[in-house]
Amino acid sequence: MNRIDLExxxxxxxxxxxxxxxxxxxxxxxxxxxxxxxxxxAELLETAKEALGAATRTVVVDISDHExxxxxxxxxxxxxxxxxxxxxxxxxxxxxxxLDAYDISWWKKIIDINVNGTFYVNRAVVPGMKERNYGRIxxxxxxxxxxxxxxxxxxxxxxxxxxxxxxxxxxELAGYDIAVNCITPAxxxxxxxxxxxxxxxxxxxxxxxxxxxxxxxEAAAMxxxxxxxxxxxxxxxxxxxxxxxxxx
Length: 248
Ligand SMILES: NC(=O)c1ccc[n+]([C@@H]2O[C@H](COP(=O)([O-])OP(=O)(O)OC[C@H]3O[C@@H](n4cnc5c(N)ncnc54)[C@H](O)[C@@H]3O)[C@@H](O)[C@H]2O)c1
Hints:
- The protein is α/β, with parallel strands linked by helices and 248 residues long.
- Helices cover 45% and strands 15% of the residues.
- A seven-stranded parallel sheet has the order 3-2-1-4-5-6-7, with helices on both faces.
- The relative contact order is 0.15.
- It binds nicotinamide-adenine-dinucleotide.
- Residues 15, 17-21, 39-41, 44, 61-64, 89-92, 113, 117, 140, 142, 185, 187-188, 190-192 line the site of nicotinamide-adenine-dinucleotide.
- Nicotinamide-adenine-dinucleotide (NAD) binds next to helix 1 and helix 4.
- This is 3-oxoacyl-ACP reductase.
- It holds the Pfam family adh_short_C2.
């Protein structure tokens, strides 16, 4: 494993109780950072904290509630100090269904968490990074946001929005030593897949030229570099993690 130096950094990882977010948090801790995990699942947060060690902090928060996000940020800074790294991994897939039969409340929920929630968290954390002229942000989008998965209109649209938000914010903050990038993973075997049918999961696997799913540690390896000081130039960009699926 390459050594990435995150000594002295403090990271917020949303959705960090499990899956991709947890793997990234684990890699950050191994790299010397302190981590505050944000998640709405209190029980899983406790398990994650035990696994990562006593220095890891946790905050139970629903990122789709902007007031709760602002309070979570205040608590995080008060308890763990200023935040230099932000990874937005909290998200949901929602059910698979054709657009003309897509449940409207699910559409709204997916947009509310994946798009609005990602916006609220960025909005809360960015001012401190601007004040200190330092920050590294990674938003977790999806290959679905580039290519569009059939029967996943809400999810695909939400992840395309995350890519657009990242490009906009990255350009806005390019005059600071702040990098804002996103990654577009293909399928990784995490609990988010429980929201989908086996047929849908097999469709996504069949689209990956590597012929296998992404390992969460592979995503963590890319993100660890993206949030390091060494990533001092690239911003407003999209990093592909699709095993060859995405063609741009
Ligand atoms: N696993 C994949 O195949 C895959 C592929 C591409 C992109 N992604 C994206 O990666 C991110 C992480 O996915 P994962 O596979 O680790 O999923 P996961 O279900 O394992 O973890 C997601 C975490 O987010 C939390 N969460 C959900 N809604 C929340 C909310 N409103 N407020 C706070 N926390 C909330 C959940 O409690 C959970 O712990 C998501 O944004 C997902 O869309 C996943």
